[in-house]
Specification:
Elements (H helix, E strand, L loop, with lengths): L4 E8 L6 E5 L10 E2 L2 E3 L6 H13 L2 E14 L4 E13 L10 E4 L1 H4 L8 H12 L9 E3 L4
Parallel strand pairs: 1-6
Antiparallel strand pairs: 1-4, 2-3, 2-7, 5-6, 5-8
């Protein structure tokens, strides 16, 4: 393997503090495990652009407000990834698994009982710390505008 695969990850948060996770489909690496939605950057994309594209393709939503959470490097057997994660505070459209994946809204303590990808656990903890106001990061809100 060469280099790190850059991946944009969105932690969608509803007003009731539930978070969205999705299950990896059969035929993919780590099939059956749960993760926060997102995907690989395409050439020339910023993390925010990649996340906007991926969430539209996977879930059918348009992000309108997000805040940076963290960049986390993780090594799987099949890939070395650099996860650029964001809390997604506002979006338009109804969340649906457009690629045939299962999706679930759950409270953080419920998500811990799901069989998550390894890198999802630290992202969950970072998201919880941030939502509780104890995060080390003071996120800057970014509003996405369409040209």
């Amino acid at each position: 393997m060469t280099g790190r695969v850059r991946v944009a990850v969105g932690v969608l948060v509803r007003a009731d503090r539930t978070l969205l996770i999705q299950q990896r489909r059969d035929g993919t690496d780590c099939a059956g495990l749960w993760e926060f939605p997102g995907g690989k950057f395409e050439t020339g994309e910023s993390p925010e652009m990649a996340l906007q594209r991926e969430l539209k393709e996977e879930l059918g939503i348009e992000i309108s407000k997000l805040s940076f959470l963290s960049t986390l490097n993780h090594d799987y057997e099949h890939a070395h990834v650099s996860l650029h994660s964001y809390l997604v505070h506002q979006w338009s459209g109804e969340v649906q698994g457009l690629e045939g994946q299962n999706v679930a809204w759950a409270l953080p303590e419920e998500i811990r009982s799901y069989d998550l990808l390894e890198a999802a656990y630290p992202l969950l903890e970072q998201a919880v710390a941030n939502l509780n106001g104890a995060g080390a990061l003071a996120p800057e809100n970014v509003t996405i505008t369409q040209d």
